[in-house]
Amino acid sequence: MIVVSDEEATLLADHLQQERENFDEQYLEKGSNGMMLINQIPCHFLSDNKCTVYDFRFAGCREFPALHIPDFKNRLFTIFMHYDRCPIIFNVVEKLKLAMGFETDGSE
Ligand code: SF4
Question: Could you tell me if 65 and 102 are in contact, meaning their C-beta atoms sit under 8 angstroms apart?
Answer without folding.
Answer: no
